[in-house]
Amino acid sequence: MVGLGAQDLKWTLDHIRQHIEQGLPLVPLFNIDVIEASPERGAVRLREGEYVTRPGGSVAGPVQFALADVATYALILAARRDQAAVTVDLTINFLRPAMTLPLVAVATTLRAGRRLFTAEVRITEEATGRLVSHATTTYALSQVA
Q: Which of 132 and 2 is assigned the larger pLDDT?
């Protein structure tokens, strides 16, 4: 992908999945699947895995943090095609223990400026729809996109 401009790439769901899986080693480690990447939404699913839960059986906070971050990155790739965008802030509120996998994190745009992109992320238990955590994320957009 080096040397290719954002406009030269085909930003399909499959391309975004591949880009995220290859570029973010925590995605396969935590068993995170990108399930949607559109200009309106980025969504990821967390499946069971060795590095996902903490003692007591709940999904670990850092794993939920990663879900929010990856869902937002998928949204930015689809909406802005900006591979070089980076997280500058992520605030997460853990509302209840996440005990039932899989979890789904859905990111939607709050504000898409020229330099900053802010999104809301809702993380729910897929089976019950119960909200387990809520995050807001801000990414700095690159100058090249």
A: 132
**pTM of the predicted protein model:** 0.92
Mapped onto helix, strand or coil, the DSSP state of residue 69 is helix
**Residue 10 has what pLDDT?**
76
Amino acid code (one letter) for 20? I
Find out whether 73 and 123 touch, Cβ atoms under 8 Å. no
121-144 pLDDT per residue, tens: 999 999 999 999 999 999 999 976
- Could you give the C-alpha distances from 97 to 57, 130, 131, 133, 144, in angstroms and in order? 9, 10, 10, 9, 40
What are the structural domains, with CATH classification, of the chain? 6-140 (3.10.129.10)
Q: Where are the alpha helices (DSSP H) in the chain?
A: 13-23, 26-30, 61-80
CA Rg value for the chain: 15
Name residue 125's amino acid: E
Which residue has 């975004």 as its token pair?
Answer: 16
